[in-house]
Amino acid sequence: MAVLVKLPTVLRPFAGGVERVEVASGEAETTVGAVFAALEQEHPALRRRLTDEQGALRRHVNVFLGNDNVRDLDGLGTTLTDGDELLILPSVAGG
């Protein structure tokens, strides 16, 4: 199975400059957390920008599966299937 992870411009330098990363797994299903762990293997600096020291999703990072924020689903435990696409969007704040 494969999951496509779309990265915003600000995170691309930590993934070799690419806009999309395909994460492959030998499993029929996987989770958002497992995809992030696989990303860490290939792009260690990227993972540190997504999760904190305890492995939880950072507060300023939003991850969407379709139109749903994974925080509204099962967080990093959200189940993914073959062909799913994740969109990572850091929160923007300012005044």
Structure description:
This protein has 95 residues and is an alpha+beta fold. It has two helices and seven strands. The chain has helices at 32-42, 44-50, and strands at residues 2-6, 20-24, 29-31, 61-65, 68-69, 79-81, 85-90. Strands 2-1-7-4-5 form a five-stranded mixed β-sheet, covered by helices on one side. It has a two-stranded antiparallel ribbon with strand order 3-6. Helix 1 (32-42) runs antiparallel to helix 2 (44-50). The longest helix is centred in the middle third of the chain and has 11 residues, at 32-42. The mean pLDDT is 90.
Secondary structure layout plus pairing:
Elements: E1 2-6, E2 20-24, E3 29-31, H1 32-42, H2 44-50, E4 61-65, E5 68-69, E6 79-81, E7 85-90
Parallel strand pairs: 1-7
Antiparallel strand pairs: 1-2, 3-6, 4-5, 4-7
Helix pairs in contact: 1-2
